[in-house]
Amino acid sequence: MSENRRFVLRRRPNGEPVPEDFELVTEPVPGIGEGQFLIRNHYASLDPAMRGWMDDAESYMPPIPLGDPVRASTIGVVAESKAEGFEPGQWVMGLNAIEDYSVGAVGGFTQPIDPQVVPSVTNYLSLFGAVGMTAYFGLFEVCKPREDGTVLVTGAAGAVGSIVGQLAKIRGCRAVGIAGDPEKCRRLTERYGFDAAIDYRGKDEEALTAAIAEAAPDGVDVIFENVGGVILDAGLNSLNMHARVGLCGLISEYNSTDRVGARNLWQLIVKRASITGLLVADYVARFPEGAEQMGKWASEGRIVIDEHIDEGIENAYGAFMRLFSGSNQGKMILKIA
Ligand SMILES: NC(=O)c1ccc[n+]([C@@H]2O[C@H](COP(=O)([O-])OP(=O)(O)OC[C@H]3O[C@@H](n4cnc5c(N)ncnc54)[C@H](OP(=O)(O)O)[C@@H]3O)[C@@H](O)[C@H]2O)c1
Known about the structure:
There is one protein chain. This protein is of the alpha/beta class. The protein has 2 domains: 3-126 and 306-335, Medium-chain alcohol dehydrogenases, catalytic domain (Quinone Oxidoreductase, Chain A, domain 1, Alpha-Beta Complex); 130-281, NAD(P)-binding Rossmann-like Domain (Rossmann fold), CATH 3.40.50.720. The protein has 9 helices and 15 strands. The strands form 3 sheets. Strands 3, 4, 5, 6, 7, 14 and 15 form a 7-stranded mixed β-sheet that branches. A 6-stranded parallel β-sheet has the order 10-9-8-11-12-13, sandwiched between helices. Strands 1-2 form a two-stranded antiparallel ribbon. NADP nicotinamide-adenine-dinucleotide phosphate binds at residues 47-49, 130-131, 134, 155, 157-161, 179-180, 184, 226-227, 248-252, 278-280, 323-324, 326, 328, 331-332.
């Protein structure tokens, strides 16, 4: 334990991130003070939101300072401790960074976790972490689907979207998913239980609108929106009266430099529909409730989660970029140790 490799943000990406925006640096392992503990990170969560944190724009989180390692949720093991309640060997989870070692503190974001969780401790970054909680609280608290309604999920084969579809089925809804290739679409219906799947690639707004009309013959009552742009436009064309759109993410726009987004918001007026932004951080106090329910459904086999784990901190850039090429086949995680 002498070196700390850190995946540092060197400059702010202009559009799509390129390797030169980052640098893998090696520094000494940091020391700890009273009330602090040293975390040996084992896994880092790679999330689309990290792209926003790389910009010089104030949002719900401050930008990552240039020269700092890229902020990420991690899970790891306490290596040293001068903090009550955190013992060496204990597994923890927190908002840290893509680096070998992070320093945690009592009263910070890092919390102990149970490594015996079935099937894998990485589930704290998927089903029981922000991803699972986004799906759970976003669908049930923001979108409020009714039992006989139709839920349209965009980015449906991804970490959040795949869970949303399964939750919509548990609620009794018709679930329609949009994803980026035939293999992902097959996974939507065969593995996650969606009633219908639409491959958006090669389709313009008109073709997508027609495909949604076919997959959702009674119209769309809820959109769980992860993508934005033309995909959101097609969904807006398909709304029923008083439909609800939960705006979870706009990944198709995160790397755009011109910020052109959906153009059909006027459909909300026509259909007296509502659109609500949702942020998982608002539900942190209720995570135990969400995690308990998700755990129950997972143990009953009613929810499955797929994780895509790439190995090696030196592969952080390529692993992160999978989120934008769509080559991740589940919740994107980087194995660091
Ligand atoms: N509001 C919140 O609190 C919150 C919390 C977590 C996540 N989110 C948002 O939820 C969304 C999904 O996040 P995730 O972690 O579950 O990631 P993910 O869906 O596992 O991975 C990203 C996926 O987005 C799709 N994608 C990428 N670029 C695209 C484009 N230009 N057009 C269409 N699809 C594109 C790709 O799937 P295809 O192969 O299907 O294209 C890719 O696999 C993101 O927008 C994220 O920001 C929001």
